[in-house]
Amino acid sequence: MKQIFTTTLRLNLADEDDRRAYEHLQRMDKKQYRSYSKAIVTAVNDHFERQARLESDPYLETRAKEDAFLRRVMEAIEQGLRFAPVSMFPSTPPAAVEVLSTEDDENISAALDFADSF
Question: What pTM was computed for the model?
Answer without folding.
Answer: 0.45
